[in-house]
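ok so I'm stuck.
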Amino acid sequence: MKHREGNPKLTSGFTLVELLVVLAILGMLAALVGPQVLNQLGGAKSKTAAIQINDLEQALEIYKLDVGRFPSSSQGLEALVSEPSGARGWNGPYLKKGELPLDPWGNPYQYRYPGQGSGPDIISLGADGRSGGTSEDADVTS
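replied:
not stuck anymore, here's the structure
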């Protein structure tokens, strides 16, 4: 290994100022990109809830084909994984994993039959777990 002769202060490496400039640039990038990533994460959870609700609707349609009607509000979505009393023709469980999924925020889906329209209503109450709301707190419904 050869040493530089002439100026003993010349060595390879980074100065403290160079490291601070790089850290400042990384901090600014994180401040600009971070909120955008978090906004996308919230939207992804709402989309996941909509997809899960669609899967539950399909399972309810198969249940209706077998039993002849949708489960009542009192039977709820639980009728998709365990046979309710008086359900002739039940051929479940109607969900692949044999258990009800929770919404992306860890709350159970709400079920009503009859719903607002002609079929049942499946509802995720969003991040806040309460009716209404905006953005990530907004309800996701069937």
